[in-house]
Every structure is written in structure tokens, then in C-alpha cells.
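Researcher: Here's the sequence for the chain we discussed earlier.
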Amino acid sequence: MYAIDVDNVTRIYQKYSARHRFQTFKSALLKGDFLRALRPDELVMALDGVSLKIEKGQTFGIIGENGSGKSTLLKVVAGIAKPSSGRVRTQGKVSALIELGAGFHPEITGRENVTINGIMLGLSKKEIHQKFDEIVRFAELEEFIDAPVKTYSSGMYMRLGFSVAINVNPDILLIDEVLAVGDASFVPKCLDRIDDFRRRKKTILFVSHDLPTVAKICDKVAWMKGGKLMMVGEPKRVVDAYLQDVTVKQEEKFEERSKAIDLEQKFEEERRENRWGDRAVEIKKVRLLSLKGVEKHVFAPEEGMVVEMEVESPALVKDFVFGVGVFNSQGVACYGTNTSLEDYVPVSFRGRGIVAFRIGRLGLINGTYYLDLAVHKKDGYPFDYLRNLYSFLVSSTDRDEGIARLPHDWSFSPKIRIRPPKTGGKARVNPSTPRHECRGLLRVNPEPRFSSPPLKAGLSVGERVKKAETPGNPKNAVKKNKKR
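Model: Thanks. This is the structure I predict for it:
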């Protein structure tokens, strides 16, 4: 017998347009369109033929985008919402923590709300009295339990609701994305209690956008999209499939944004902060590629990237420098370089050509990054400077801080007992990574390759430093950009 059995469940909501907003029974009768006024403008299928079987003692996770039907499914299982068709069967007492403050009356105290919620969940007054001190102690609300609930913060709401839900000793615990408002000390307590439930073979249905937590605590995971079940199975496999689908969507958005940039158009005055220069040498086109030459805008930290610039010079030029800078969404410089800093010596250029800047491994943490691309003279005089017109996304489930993810490993002496990451999760250790990659925070294994071969350096180190200090010089791509 399954703890939760969802059989071909469909849930349809009626959607009305703004013209129904102020419609009344009287006005509908007077206008003679009473029946038409009752008809919805649109039917929204929140759940579309969903079938799930969850075994007793199993911790089952549900992931998916906002609006995919996750919370609706939990409400149907909890009995809060009725399915339009299909059937839901549960075995045992169900306790649900679905919406923040659900079941709480804002005008009465926390003490009174605990009593009312306990009764609604099937406890007697005697059982509530026996468990009351433990509920308040776990929620850490001893000082506020006799205050009206409307004076509670969102975190206090969550703590009290979670404490009540787990202390009624349910057979099935339903948890929606409410732990997100918990503080740094309370969320680990909640996860510890969930682990205790798992050890006691209780059934848990868990909805969350925190994919590492889902992969860590769940025995099985379902991915929902558009009200349908896309995949059910082992957590790592389902999470990876969901991330691949998200990556495809993100790639489409970045591609649309990139297509909207027309370098051939004349930039208006208000957009000069994004592009400037006399265009004696002009950047005509920019593409972001994988190391295999496939155009893309979403990368993993361990992937490489090629920035390809198509440039044109109608007249012969002998003084030119190509530069690239990478900035994060806060405007902090992650890396910057140019051909002059790396001792490439310009000889001549006329007509059209391709400049390719190849990064062997990005090594950046999760986030959106922006490019500064430039061609200028050695003294910094700009031919064409593009600021923040092109961007890319680094997608990762690793929870790192800072700018770059440096290759690393951990080791501990025998007296330090520590549990390693869960087997099957994404490895956070890469002992085979060459040590020379850890040379700095902003330059992790760069492989810049330009279209022309390196020539003998024409500037001394002192001269290069002096040139790099020239105001407005795109060589200074490592300087902090203006905050967006």
C-alpha cells in the first residue's frame, strides 16, 4: 500500500478578464448577459493528468519552474483543493506546511493559533497541552507567543507553522517552499528534524527550488513542467535533466538579447555610454562560442569559451590593440587583458578580419557576466569600444562565494572527523586538476589566442605599466566597472 497515491489528477482553474472585475449580480441581470458573465474567459490547467505513487517512509521531492503545478499538487494531496478529475488516496495523518501563515488568524495570539491548528490537525486539547512547550521551544518564540500573530515577521510565521506541523506526529509531512524565509540557525534545525522523520520512516513530500538540498535529502524526485510530470526517478538524474531544460530556455533568452544588438546601427547619444570611438577600426560582429565552435551563451564553470570579433579597417593602420574584459553583474572586474599587455606587436591591418579570444576554462561562479570589447591605439585612443553590450551566463549548482571557483581539494588529520559530500552528488573535489591553474583569483587557466601569431615584444615592462595607467585606456579592463 502506498502512502500517497495520485491517480490521473487534473485541476482546472477559471480565469476571468478585467471586464468581470466589477461585475455584480444586479448589473448582469440588468444587462441581460447573466449567463455570459458567468463564463470564464480562459481555463488554466494547473495539473494535467498527474499520476504519482509514493511509498511509505520515502522522502519525495518535486522540482520545476514557478507555475509548473508543484504547489497545486501539494494542495490536492493535503485536501485543501479538490481535483477536477482523478483521485488522490493517502494513508495516515497528513500535516501540511504549504503557505506562509496558512491556518493562522492574524488577530489572535500565537498561543491561541497553536491550539486551533492542533485541533484542525486532529489533536485533542490534552495532547496540545502536552506538546505546547515543545512547539514553542522549537519555534524559539517564548517571548512572543502571547502577542498577536499579525505582529510576527515572515520568519516567525514560518517557525511557528513548521513547529506545529512536525509536532503533531504526522505520518505524511507536506512541505512547500517555506524554509526559504528561515534564518541561518533555524533552517538547519528544520533539516535535522526532517532527517529524524526519515529515520522514523515517515513519508515526506518536499517542494523546493533549492536543488542541492533536494538532491541531498530526497530518495526520489519528480520534475514538473506546465502541469505535467516530465520525469520521476533518482535525484541526480532528474535534477540534471531539469537543469538542462532550464539551460535551453536561458540560452534562447540570451540569444534573443544578442540578436537585438545591431552594431551596424548608429548609436544615439543616450547610448554612447555603451559604445564609443571614431570607428577607424570597427567591430562589426561579436559571437560567443564553445570550444567546439558552437554559438552559445550559457556555460558551465568547467567549460571554455571563445569570444570572436569580426573587425574592419577601411584604411591601413599600424597601431592597434585588441582588448577583452569580463565583469560580473555588480560591475566587479573578473578578468581583463589585451594584446599589448601580452606583448603582441601590431604590424598592419586593412580590410576585414577575425579576432578570437579563447578561454580554456572559465572557472567563474554561478551568475551573469558582461563583456567589454575594444580596439584602440597603444596610447589608449579608442577606435571602437563596446561596454556591456554582450553578456553570458555561468550556470552551476555549486554554492560558492566570490568571483572564481579555484580548483581545490580538502584533507583532514585523523582526529578531525568529518562526513564527505553525499555520494552521487556533483563532485566538489578535483584532485587531478593541475596545480598551476591555481595561480590567481581572476586568471584561472586562461588560454588567450588571437588571430595573429605572437611577435617579439616592442615594449618593456615599465613602458607597459605606464601605458596601462593611461586614463580611458581599455587595457585597464581589470579596473572596476561602473555599477549597473
